[in-house]
Structures are given as structure tokens and as C-alpha cells.
Amino acid sequence: MTQLAIIGVYLALLLGLGLFSSRLFRGTGEDYMLASHSIGPFLLLMSLFGTTMTAFALVGSTGEAFREGIGVYGLMASSSGIVHSLCFLLIGVKIWSFGYKHGYTTQIQFFRDRLGSNGIGLLLFPIIVGLVIPYLLIGVIASGAVINGATIGTFPETFAATRGGVPHWLAALVICSVVLIYVFFGGMRGTAWANTFQTSVFMILGVVTFVVIANGIGGQDGLWANMQAATAKVAQAHPDRLTRSEMSKFMFTTYLLIPLSVGMFPHVFQHWLTARSAQTFKLPVIVHPLFIMLVWAPCVMVGVWATSATLNGQLIVPPDVRPNTELPLMVAKLAGPVLGGLLSAGILAAIMSSLDSQFLCIGSIFTNDIVLHYWDKKRFSEKQIVMWARLFVVAIVAVTYGLSLFEPRSVFAMGIWCFSGYTGLFPLVFAALYWKRLTVAGAYACVLTVAGMWLWLFAESGFGANANYTFQLPAFGQQLEMMPVLPITVASVVALVAVSLVTSPPPDETLRRFFPESQS
Amino acid sequence: MKYVIWISVVVLLILHQDFWWWDDGTLLLGIVPIGLASHIAISLAAAVLWFLATIYCWPHSAEEAESSTAPTTEGGQG
């Protein structure tokens, strides 16, 4: 009951914050979807970090470190620290500048304008939306699982079928409702404020959990001695977890491409446009790698310690434990219900700070790229535009919740496929900003190639059933093992460049708008 | 200086591969394996490098657009 009460208080605080921020709402579509370009450096830093970090940053990182060892940090954290900031600097600032100048809200508006083609918008629309949906489902399903796990035994008679825990369907319904309410009323400003609050919560709780677990495992006096004792146990029982000996070196290298997906995430694109000025980007560019380190390094160490930590002579986490339950299990056995409740709130914070942006983003895409684009925009008042955006947000939340009831567990394996698809499209946004020779035919070739390659490799993986699928390339007398993202991205670049070079260059008018410095 | 920064980013990406500590289980301060410590150092170095990039590689053309243009509410061409 303690855990449920803590989660309830946390959700109530979040609702209060969202509703309070709605009092600052200026009543226009631009304010609802972009907070009128008013977001300053700190809010931008927190909302970008909260949006790019999901539940995986807390429970997934611990679970992967439990299975794979310390290499997980290099695989996902240090690489993201370099590549995400690179995207913010090279892509984000320029996108913000064009969005501010030409009034974009969505990626599709930018590409349609840059390439002078309506069709490219139609082609990108299902791909961009389609790749977000599994990502949304992961969040909704995970939130149901977190609350269910935290409340097991609380209602033994009412929810006997779920061992007394709040059932997944009800927990996910509550989370969807809370996110819906603050996104519905607060729009982008409410989302940015909520993300800031939630990001602070999961960062602080991550550190607190680390200290409590280290002290619980070590059995010595003082945190330092406890950390040494916890690591010493691993060195004795599972020394391989302290190295990357089980990891493929080439696959490690190809993983470096995955964080490029941030450059094409539609919800990150929308957050970029909320910035007050170009200067606003400086703080996120610098601090983002540090924030990733603060969250990931403790979680990875806890995951490694979990392989060998014992309590009363018994392993705290059995080797065959269900994936992603390692951290909650450690907390349950070493900390008690109060920290358990706070940790559950922290995990929910990480999940919801991505969900809200994605819901708002899809609502914005439908409003701008379907309703306002294909109907006469002038016939809508600002109030009606906000109404359309809100209606779409409600519809997206309802559809996502409905899909989550089917419990498509394989959707978890889809996460990496979503990222691979967005990374495959990264050359398109990069070329649109930096290569004058990009043509609409080149863009079509790039998008179609990514779609084709993605579908082919996804089918090869048994449609995500084989979670450990890798692409094998015979080279130098051996099989090179790599993430599917590499062949997808290479094919994307080749198609984009080759087709652009053999088709007519874009008109001067387009180049003057998007490359003014080289035209003067 | 701009080129030094971009070359440093490439060097950092190469250092990120750190195959030389792949199988090394040496513990720093008795707590952190060297393979993890090196990547924590890469995160810190990335923050320093991006700080320098905001000084020496900043796209000032973006700010010129800001000072010369009032935002519109148009959503691109139809």
C-alpha cells in the first residue's frame, strides 16, 4: 500500500503541475504545439533529456549490465553522449532557425518545403508515424508492468488474478489518463514543465537507489568500502562482467549509428522548435553527455553488482530472473517499500517524459500535415486549430491504449528496430540541411530504400521475434556480425547520393531560401 | 580552431572503440573496471568538447536568421 500511495502522490503532483502550466496558455495553435518558441535553456535541456531517456535508462541499463556486463555503457551511454549532442548542434540549431523563419511545426512541413514536393510528405507521413507507435506501446505496456509489479499483494481479494497487484490494463489506463490530461490542457508548455519535473525525479532517485543498494550489498562501514566490497564479489564470481570479453567488437562499432536516430525523431524535432533562441541550445549540447553519465553509470554498476550480490547466503537476483526486473528486485530486497515506491515513481517518470512528447507530436502531425495542409488553413480560427490538436491527442492516446491491451510483448524487441529506421532516415535530414545538390528524387530514393531494407531485414529477424538478430556479412574469410542499422544506413546514403546526382538540381529559389549564405 | 574541434570529435569517436581494454578487468580504486572508467572519461571529454564547440563551431548564421526574421505562423508551402 505504501508503494501505491507514493505513486498516487507523484501522479497527483504531475497533474497539478500540468494544470498549473495550462494557466499560461495563450490560446493559439503555435502556443499549444510549440509553446510560442518560449522555452529557455534549462527547460530545453530537461525536456530533451527526459524525452530521449526512456524506462530503458533505469531498468533496461541495469538488466543489460546484469547479462552483458559493463560494455552496455559504451554501447548506449557514452556513444549517445557524443552523438546526441552532435545532432543537437548540427541538426537542431539549423532546424530551429528554419522553423522560426518559415513557421514549421512538424518535420513533414520542413521536408515538403525544402524539397518543393507534396508527395514526399505523403511518403514520410506513414513511416514517421508508424515508427513512433511501437515506441509509444513500449512506454504504455512498461508503465502497466511497473505499477503491477510495485503493488503485488496489495489487493489480494480484488485483484486475485494478478497476485493482488493493480492489473496491467488498469495501471496503463491511469498512466494514459494522467499524461492525456496534462498534455490536453498544458500542450507543449505543460509537457516541457512536466518533463523537467520528471527528469529531476528520475535522476535524483537513480542516485539515491545506487547509494542504498551499494550500502545494502557491501555490509561494510561507509559507502566507499561498500562499493569496493560489492565490486570485489563480482571480480570473484563473474569477472567476465567487468570486461567486454563476451561482446562482438564490430557490433559494438556498428551500434554507434543507433543514437543518430535522435536527428530524425519527430518528437525531438518538435522540442527543438520550442527553443527561445539559437543560443538556448548551448546548455543542452554541453550538459546532455553529463546527464547521461549520471543516470547510466550507477545503473550499470548496480546491474553488474546484481550478478554476485548475496543476502543471508542467497543470491539477491537469481540468474534466470525475468529481464528488466533486476533493479526492482534489488530495491525490494535491500531497501523496503518507501524507496520501492519512490523508485517506481522514478521509472514512471522516465516513461511518461517520453510518452507525453510523442502523444503531442503525433497530434501535431495529424493537425498540421493532414487537416491544415489539405483543407484551407484560413478557414480555421486559432481556437479551432487547438481543438483539432487536442482531439488528435485524445485519439492517439485511445488508440495506443487499445493496442496495448493486446499485450504485444514482442513490441519490446521493436525498440531497436524503431531506432534503426530513424537512423536510416538520418542522411535525409543531414543532406537537406547541408547538401545543396539533394533533389526530391534523391529523397524519394532514400526513403524507399530505407523502407525496403528495413522491411527485408525485419522479416529476416522473424518480424522482431529473434531479439538477438544481427546481419552477417562474409568478409576477409569470416562472417562480420553487425547491427541491421549499418546496411540500412549505407543503402540509404548510396540511394540518396546516386539518385540526386543523376537528376536535375533543385531550383535556385529553393537554394536561396535554405542556403542564403552561399548565394550572397 | 574549428577544425581542431571537429578532428577531436573524430578522435573521440575512435577512442570510444577502445579495443585495447576490451578484456582488461583491472579495477580503478577497487571499484570501477577500467573498461567502464574509460567510457565515463569519454562522457566527460564529450561535455568539454561540446563546450568548446559552442564557442568555436557555433552556427552564427542561425542567429542572423533570428534577428532578421519575425516568426510566422505559416506552415510551409502547400
Automatic annotation (TrEMBL), chain A:
The gene is putP_2. The keyword Transmembrane helix applies. The chain crosses the membrane at residues 42-60, 72-99, 119-147, 168-185, 197-217, 250-273, 285-306, 327-351, 387-406, 412-435, 442-465, 485-503. GO terms for molecular function: L-proline transmembrane transporter activity; proline:sodium symporter activity. Gene3D superfamilies: Sodium/glucose cotransporter. GO terms for biological process: proline transport. This is Sodium/proline symporter. PROSITE patterns: NA_SOLUT_SYMP_3 (PS50283). CDD domains: SLC5sbd (cd10322). It catalyses: L-proline(in) + Na(+)(in) = L-proline(out) + Na(+)(out). It is a multi-pass membrane protein. One of its GO terms (cellular component) is plasma membrane. Belongs to the sodium:solute symporter (SSF) (TC 2.A.21) family. It comes from the Bacteria. Keywords: Cell membrane, Ion transport, Membrane, Sodium, Sodium transport, Symport, Transmembrane, Transmembrane helix, Transport. It is found in: Cell membrane.
TrEMBL record, chain B:
The keyword Membrane applies. The chain crosses the membrane at residues 27-52. It comes from the Bacteria. Keywords: Membrane, Transmembrane, Transmembrane helix. InterPro entries: DUF3311. This is DUF3311 domain-containing protein. The lineage of its organism: Bacteria, Pseudomonadati, Planctomycetota, Planctomycetia, Planctomycetales.
